[in-house]
Structures are given as structure tokens and as C-alpha cells.
Fold:
Amino acid sequence: MCGIVGVLGKHEAAPLLVEALKRLEYRGYDSAGIATVNEGKLDRRRAVGKLVNLSDLLVHNPIAGKSGIGHTRWATHGGPSVKNAHPHQAGDVAVVHNGIIENFMNLRAELNEKNINYETDTDTEAVVLLTKYFLSQGLSPTEAAKKTISRLTGAFALAFLFQGEDDLIVVARQGSPLVIGHGDGEIYVGSDAIALAHLTNKITYLNEGDFAQISRKKIQVEDKNGIIVNRKIQNINLKSAKADKAGYKHFMAKEIAEQPLTLATTLENYLHEDPCDIILPKNNLKLTQIESLTMVACGTAFYAALTAKYWFEKIARVRVEVDVASEFRYREPPILKETTAVFVSQSGETADTLAALRYMSSHNANIISIVNVIGSSIARESNLVLPLHVGAEIGVASTKAFTAQLTVLALLALKIAKAKATITENQYQKFLDELKRLPEVISQALCLEPNIQKIAGELASYNDVIFLGRGAMYPLAMEGALKLKEISYIHAEGYPSGELKHGPIALIDKKVPVVVIAPKDTLFDKSVSNMQEVMARSGKIILISCESGLELAGHGSWATITMPDVSEFTAPIIYAVPMQLLAYHTALSKGTDVDQPRNLAKSVTVE
Ligand code: M6R
Structure:
């Protein structure tokens, strides 16, 4: 995973690199480092943990130089330590790397035979050692980097800096994104355009297999066949200001609280008033001909897709398959002609989702993506992009992106349903009215925070929690469990309520609270029966339903959360709020690092 940056500047590089790395911390925060060339001399600083540790180190031990590269790490090969932190250096070359060098074991063996030994546990060290070796054979820095890259398999974005070269950075991308930024007499590189937003809005996206030799005055890009190509400079409209917490203790708290606003913006971007209709960006979709959809995503985005399956099937009568991206392409699923595939990803950079998209593209599928980051790799490789319009999501635990993903998916389902006439105009308008009420009803759900905070205070002392839901509440049960485990480190599982009796009910005792998500819908009675089975075994129930649901079934629960009355259609979006608040306040009680929980990264750019 990891984020990489580079600067060939007019001023000191270190502050620019650190600021750019701050913007890439969503890619990992196990360690960080920078290397510079100052009057020809290569130097570097590295620190374990978050970027702030590197900043502190630089205060006491500054580093000079107007050319430099930087890295923020999410450990893959080798634990977080200074030794394993990037930039890696061997002799006259330093390298930062995002991705995985899959053949590093073979390269290591080959280098060992040449009596070149490893000092770190990383795959990346193979890159610097090989380059050092090629330099010792008389190759120029650019030739040595190119020859090294020709020996690598796997996914990577790489930036090389060389001793004695104040005006040279060599970069390459294969499988991991990389951009070049154009400043006034300065050139930058970064894992994404956001990293460079404080420096420039003039961005060149490198293509798969590109190799570039960069100096302040000249950038030479070669494509994967070694042919010199011209990659255009685009003006990217990115806010340069880094999002702030607006007075909240955590980004996650802010992102939960702003959902009425973010959903209003999402809806505004897709709804046309008078007559009310859903307007999609220009596309070649033949909506009436869509019989089936393949949906692929990871984590929270996967649960959004799984929820949408219920809408697409029930309302639009479209068959839907939903796959976890990491399991998709290695199964080599046959792709039928005219397949439409939907990829859901907040970041638009998730490596597994991107790889699945490319598999689908190579089989000529029509690609729709639902992303938050508009210039992302997934967006750029799609036929139709449906943006979330919720602004940057910084908290590692996805919240406002989830409710917006659900909303956009609901809109797409309705649009198809209308085109296929599986619903009447009246039903269509009724569904749209329900969506338009989302900001208001989500605001009401947010008012439940004090009660949820109390429950979370109790929950924090348990080691295991089970979440149950039926129908469209089943994916939400899994999402609730994911939220809780990722930020509070409490073991949690989401199950379909009806499945509990087929095994997991053996887990139930007083020490395992069970969160039951049971809006008063067509499956309410069945959910209540399943809940009774848990109660009969001394299970502690946290029941989430509306007032009338709780009146009927709340008796005997350990705790209850009284939700507003909502329609069956929008319930998964609104019931997401107590899932988020429960996880957030449990994590607060436990004192974990809510925005940057251990072992995680916001965007997972390795397979
Ligand atoms: O950027 P993406 O939506 O593709 O990310 C997918 C998952 O990595 C992400 O949803 C992850 O599960 C979140 N941390 C969940 O809160």
C-alpha cells in the first residue's frame, strides 16, 4: 500500500514533502520517511509510527536539499520499524515504493549469489540493491532504474533519487497509481493528485507501464513498449485545503454528523425537480435491456452493494451477483456478452476492486463505478462514473461514503426500474419522496446519540458482539460488525437472523451481546422470533426498531434504540446511523485511535 511523493523544487523540499505525505496518510501510517539530494549528497530521515513522528525528528535533525522523495507506509513485508521504513537506500540510490514486488524472493537469491546482502525485511530493498548493482556495472542512473524495473513483477509505483543528481527523479508505475504535478519551475510526483493539491492543480496521470525521467525543465515519459509518449496535463479542480475536524473530536464524528448535509448534496446532484426525475451523467446505458448486474467491491462498499441487491432485484427485477473484489478475478468467472458491472469504492483506488474492474473491462463489460474520489483510477477506467459528492472522507471507518453509496445505488435501481416499467410512475415518485426525506430523517436518527453513547459505554467491556438482521438489514448487520471491530477492536460478527439457529447460536450466553436490527417491515415478525430464540438462551439483546416495533417486541431487551418511522426502502440507509454511533462511542470508551485504528489504512492499494 503506502503513499509516495517527490519534489524537484526551487525551495527546501522537506516541508513540501511532509505536507504532501500528510495528504497521503490515508494510505498507511506505520512509518514515514524522506530522502533529499543536497549539493549532490543523498541523505534521509525515517521514523516509525505516524507522520507527526517524522515531523518531530525533522525539527531536531533537519534535512536540506531542494530535491527529494517521501513515503508513508502500510507494512506489507516486514513489520513497522525504522529499518523497514522507506526511502530505502543502497549506495547512490534511494527509492520509495507503493505496491508489492512479488518476485523479491528470487531477486534476493540472485543478489545473494553476487554477495549482495539484505539489511531489511522488505520486498522494496530488492529494487535499491538491483539498481545499485546496475550502477556499479556502469549504467547511468536512468538506465539502471529502467533495467531494474524490467526485472520486477508485481504491482508498483516507484520513485528513484540518486546521489550526485540534484535535478533528477525517475519514476515508474505498474498496477499502482502515480501522477506528475507541474509547478512554476518545480515538478512534483505523488500517488494521487490530492497529495499535490497544495502545490499545483496541473496534473499528468501516468498510464500503466509508464516510465518517466523527470528534471525541472523536461519530463520524458516512455510507455510500456519503451516508446516516448506525450501524456497530457490536466487542470484538476481540487480544494488545496486539507479537511479539518470543524470542532469535532474526530473526523469520524464529523463525518457521521454531516450526513444530512452530504446526503442532501448527493441527492441534489442526481434529482431534477418538476417533474421530479433522476438524472444520470451522460451515458450509453440501455437501461431497458439490463437483465442482470455484477457488483464488485470491498469492505463497507461491498456491504453497500449487497444491500443494493435487494433493491435491484425487488424493485427493478434485475438479477444481481455481488462479489468481494479479492475473490472475483481469480475465479475467472465467465463474462457474458453485454454484461454491465458496477464497482463501488469510496477511494476509487482499492487494488482488488481495480483489478476486478480491469478483468471485466478486458471482457468488454460495460463499467459503471460509484466512487467518491472523482479523478481516481477506478473512475478513470469506467464507462460511467456516479460520484458520491460527499467531500473527502478522512476517518478510516467509512461512514458518510456508505450512506451516499447506498443512496446512489438506490437511485440507480429506481432509474432502471422506471425504464423497465417494473414500477408505476406513482410508485417511482413515492420512492423519490422517501429518498428526499433522507436528510431530515437522518437528522432525527442522529439525535439518538446520547442513548447510544450510554449503551456503547456498556458494550465496551465485552469481547464479542453479534449483529443480526434480515433482508436488507442483513448486510447492515455485517456493516455494523465491521465498524465495531475496526475501531473498537471488539470481535463482532454479522449474521442473517434466520441463520443463527444453524450454528452461531451456540455462541450465545450472557457474555455475548446481540444487536438486533429490526425495523417494522415485512420481516419484522420473523426477526422478532429469531430474537426470542436468543433471549431464550440468556442472550443480551440491543434491539433497534421504531417506537411501535419496540412496544411490540422491546420487552426483555437489555437495551433499545428507538428509531424514527421509516419506509422499508430507505431503512438500510437510516439504520446505518446507529451502527456508526455505536461503534464510534464504543471506541471512544475504549480509548482507541478512532480515525486511524491500528493495522488499517483508509485506502488499500495492494492486493
Ligand atoms: O475505498 P474503498 O471504498 O474501495 O474501500 C473499501 C474498503 O477498504 C473500506 O470500505 C473499508 O472496509 C473501510 N475501512 C470500512 O470502514
